[in-house]
């Protein structure tokens, strides 16, 4: 074979490779274009859900900027976390109860909503000294719902096989229960912490009483039983420690008195 024929074959192969790469590039551009159009349509049809996704993204950002203060004043970031969470709770509450009525029945229905609980939570801690533990339930709920909705957006765009989507799937499907249990655990232990901060002069007198009301609402929640279940788990663990043969008598009595005291504060739960 002559040198001219070899050069012609090489040119033909290069041309075929260029044509193949350009066609694959055009195909990916078409797929990406369809994905963006589908995303725009989804956003226009689900404006409130998209707004909730955005406020949760802001909540996560401000939580990180509070813990790693490289974007500004950490106290300002702390307040912005509470404000963005309040906005999320208000939007979610509007979704659940779109019409407002001035009646006792409406107020009772309002207080049964989880979003109303965390709207109260955000307002309550806005006027107290910053406590890092306060942000933990907010961060966990925002992370869970942000990941869940982001997974839906990736599915709309046709990117559900990407590495990021697989991480979100594992977070939502496999860590869902642990995230909710962790949030419930922190909710419970914030109650004695509000009392401690009161005696340290960092909290107001109304905070423990208002937070107790919040905790009773969480305990009675119909849609999220994790706080109630966590109380039960903590009671079982405490009774196990108290009943161990090596537990001192004074500690055993203190544990049982604490269990009796906390059980007496628990509200009655209506079985649905």
UniProtKB/TrEMBL annotation:
Protein's GO biological process: endoplasmic reticulum tubular network organization; membrane organization
Bilayer topology term: Multi-pass membrane protein
Subcellular location: Membrane
Record-annotated membrane-spanning stretches: 53-72, 118-147, 188-212
Pfam family, one: TMEM33_Pom33
Chain residue ranges for the region called Disordered: 1-32
One term under GO cellular component: membrane
Biased composition (Low complexity): 7-26
Secretion signal, residue range per the UniProt entry: none
Principal location: membrane
Keyword line: Membrane, Transmembrane, Transmembrane helix
Record family assignment: Belongs to the PER33/POM33 family.
Protein name per Swiss-Prot or TrEMBL: Uncharacterized protein
